[in-house]
Amino acid sequence: GLSWALPYSGEYGLLRRAANQSAEGASFNRLAEELSIAKTAGHQFAQVRYLQSELSLMQSQVALAKLILSAANARYKSNQGGQDEVIMAQNEVWRMEAEVAAASQMLNEEWRMLAAMTNADPTGGESAPVLADPHLDTIPSSVEAWIREADSANPRLRQLAARTEASRISASAFSRMSWPMLSLGAEYGFRSGFDLGTDGMSGKRGDMMSFRADISLPIFSKKKNSQMASAMTSMGDAYAAERSQMQLELKANIQSLY
């Protein structure tokens, strides 16, 4: 025989939607991690680019200090300047060269960190490629534009929205389980021919077929399903409240930064 239990009206659709929302919420964890890595790499890129610019400026200042030292030596040799001028100029060159060496070492360390993030060749800072200036997008004209962008793109806000929707859909699915359930069944029996005797009623009998419909009432599970629906609703409300709080904090931070 064959039988088939019909699902509650809309139950599978609600469960499928809840599962899709949960999967979408989980995907935002990866997006948040990707954005965090990109933010860290971008900050490191800017740090290396700044140190390269600073080192280049310091090296040009050393070259200028050496020119001043050469001029002081020339004046001293021609009796137009004192030895103290030469000593001061030499000390200034040594001081600047020490600063250049310290800046170069710092640049090497920062470049190695950036190379580790981007899988680049971790060569020294002086032999590393000179990075281009970072691209800066145009700042929106109003703080409201920033808030709208953050509200629609922030992974954590999007995750909480997906979890809220998933919880509420799950609550609807549990509520549907409190409805009566209809089961349909069918049976088909094969019978072979046989002889009943000499009374004239012998012959083949036809196959048997029957149908049935059962209705099950959730008398004992109704309370449990109602409790589960209430719990999922409360969970959805908690996610919604957390999202609202995060929206307010994000709005305050953006207003302050803007």
State the gist of this model.
By secondary structure, this protein is mainly alpha-helical. It has helices spanning 11-77, 83-118, 143-153, 155-176, 222-257, and strands at residues 2-5, 181-189, 208-216. Helix 1 (11-77) packs antiparallel against helix 4 and helix 3 runs antiparallel to helix 5.
Largest sheet: 3 strands, antiparallel
Radius of gyration: 39 Å
Shape: rod-shaped
In the sheet with the most strands, the strands line up as: 1-2-3
Low-confidence stretches: none
* Helix and strand pattern: EHHHHEEH
**Residue share in helix:** 55-70%
**How many β strands by DSSP?**
3
| Individual helix count | 5
Structural class category: mainly alpha
Mean pLDDT metric: 77
β content, as a range?
A: 5-15%
Q: Kindly report how far apart the N and C termini lie.
A: 71 Å
Characterise this structure:
The protein is mainly alpha-helical. The chain has helices at residues 11-77, 83-118, 143-153, 155-176, 222-257; strands at residues 2-5, 181-189, 208-216. The protein is rod-shaped, with a radius of gyration of 39 Å. The model has no long low-confidence stretch (mean pLDDT 77).
